[in-house]
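Appendix B, record 7
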Amino acid sequence: MLRSSRSKSLGSDPIVIEAEPFLARRSPTAQAWRMHKAVFLVLLSLPGTLVAQSIQTGRWDVTSTAVDLVIPGAPAFPVRMMKGKSKSERKCISSELASTGVAVLLAPDPKAQCHIDAQQIAGGRYSQALTCPQKQGPPIRITRTGTYDASGFAGRLDMSGQTPKGAIHMTLDQKAAHAAGRC
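Structure tokens (predicted):
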């Protein structure tokens, strides 16, 4: 059961989400529940990030295109070949999540276990600062900036960090577009 509560005063009071673990761990429904719960917790724990402008429900594609890559220890030729290549992530947006606006499209994949350090979504512009753990070494730092509207977002992601083989840096152009009415 999902319950939310908000104090009656106006302002940026936090919304509290309480969930009862009622689904089996590996079922598709349970996986969707965990994803939605994680997105809700991220979105609702950051004051000022909820956007009144809804987006369409259904499948969204978030496409990342490599602009610049510095990967220590990787052969130069494959790294050069990766520049300009794109990869898409599909997100299924329910009507509940669509009402939160573009923030749901900017939420990191829960499997990555990234922490949103700062986020601002207002007036058609967004910015985010995240830290993501690595198996070895200090966390990776990510910044994202760009523009958004009801049809999606477009912006740039800069990632930097330290690996056992040296400093890593990646720059990606990102865009999100509605792909289908159903997932």
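Remarks on this record: The first strand starts at residue 2 and ends at 5. Confidence is low (pLDDT under 50) at residues 1-52.
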